[in-house]
C-alpha cells in the first residue's frame, strides 16, 4: 500500500477514493476572516466589589446571642 491514505493500489482508479489533502480538508470549514473577536474576553474591565451581606448579618446575630448570654449571667449570678 503505497498510497498516503492506505488505499489498496488496485482501487486507486475508483472515483470514490478521491481524498482531499490535509490543507484542503481543514480549510473547507474555515471562515474567510479566521480572526474573530473573543466572545468572552479575558481580563475584563472594572468589576463591582464582592459583597457578602449574609456574613455580616451572621456575625451580628452571633454577637447579639453572646451579649444576651453574658447579660443574663451578669444579671442573674
Report on the structure:
- The protein is built from two helices and no strands.
- It has 77 residues and is mostly helical.
- The protein has a domain at 1-32.
- The radius of gyration is 36 Å and the shape is rod-shaped.
Descriptors for this entry?
77 residues; rod-shaped
Write the layout of secondary structure elements.
Elements: H1 22-27, H2 53-75
Region (Disordered): 23-48
Keywords: Membrane, Transmembrane, Transmembrane helix
Transmembrane segments: 54-76
Question: Which runs of at least 5 residues are low in confidence (pLDDT < 50)?
Answer: none
Oligomeric description of these chains: single chain
Average pLDDT value?
78
Count of alpha and pi helical runs: 2
Silhouette: rod-shaped
Order of helices and strands: HH
The N- to C-terminal Cα distance equals 99 Å
Sheet of most strands: none
Summary?
By secondary structure, the protein is mainly alpha-helical. Helices cover about 40% and strands about 0% of the residues. It has a domain at about 1-30.
